[in-house]
Amino acid sequence: MKLFAALAVLFWLISCSSDNQNLPAATGITGSIYVIMDSLQWRGPLGKTLDSIFSAEMPGLPRDESIFKFRWINPGKLNFVLKQSRNLLFVMTLDQHSGGSQIVRKLFTPESIEKIKANPTQFLTTTQNLFAKGQEIMYLYGTSEKTLIKNIRANRERLVDFFNQKERERLTQALFKAGQIKGISEMLIKDYQCNLKIPFGYKIADKRPDFVWLRQINPRDDKDIFIARKPYVSQDDFKKENLIRFRDDVCHKFLFEDPDQTETFLLTETTIPFLPVTADTINFNGHFAVQLRGLWRSNTYQMGGPFEGFALVDEGSHQLYYIEGFTFSPGKAQREIMRELETILYTFRTSDQLAKK
């Protein structure tokens, strides 16, 4: 995914090791970001703008959980241990001259400062593995705080998407480091004309001609993924109400609170005004898609939780695919469970993509 236009390298902030093998591994939990900026700016409009973006509530969860765990670090206290964090965000503007701002500004070469002055539209660059292996670093800068805030607000989704994508790449590597469940890919390609990478720990819970359900039950949570499809008719299939109707039809037929009691089926929760189902159009691995997020529950009100799904068309087979991850983990934090399920869903490939490959 192209998140940003090509940007000329303005600087190397700190000399990178030519051999990343000499660097320690990045530390920190998934979804954590440390921001290093002047204390006055952190407490002012610039810091509040950044915090509102990265600490915004993650959509589709039953309780408040921020998209990222976003923490401020005083530039003067950025020690050896903190430098190894998995995600770092350095922020600096040329109109701020206090102590913390000067520390961050020293990371920029004189030539890069002149280029920032000459082009106020340049406000961002990124690099990797500066202090640790597997580390992502973003730099936000501007001629003035007002200009930088304007650029940040105009690109807020791209800033979040950058770190989301990097976390997804890390999770992909971690989830599939030990390989995949043997035979799943072959079965999906043969029977459903698609593919989805499934890490170890999942089992096939149900399999029908146009539906397959994969499940991992742990002591702390129940993680579920399913693929459903039907012939694509028109663009109306992507309307929110029609996707919810299709989802509910699938859940009613195949997903139950108790498999031995088919009257205890699952459905989409649409009756909570402050937690509505959202439907957003996105680019999903090169396909036009609608991302559906919301809550599910059983019709008995005994179970419930968040779900995230993607609807897209396979142009090769003219099928509408709906793929979803949902979890039942009452009383537990669910942000990272859903991030993990999303990572698996992003490995989905249609028949036309498999043919090209």
Quickly describe the structure.
With 357 residues, the chain is an alpha+beta fold. The protein has ten helices and 16 strands.
What does this structure look like?
29% of the residues lie in helices and 30% in strands. With 357 residues, the protein is of the alpha+beta class. It has 2 domains: 20-175, Chitobiase, domain 2, CATH 3.30.379; 184-356, Protein Transport Mog1p, Chain A (3-Layer(aba) Sandwich). Strands 7, 8, 9, 10, 11, 12, 13, 14 and 15 form a 9-stranded antiparallel sheet that branches. The chain is elongated, with a radius of gyration of 23 Å.
What distinguishing features does this structure have?
alpha+beta, Chitobiase, domain 2, 357 residues, elongated, 10 helices, Protein Transport Mog1p, Chain A, 9-stranded antiparallel beta sheet, 16 strands
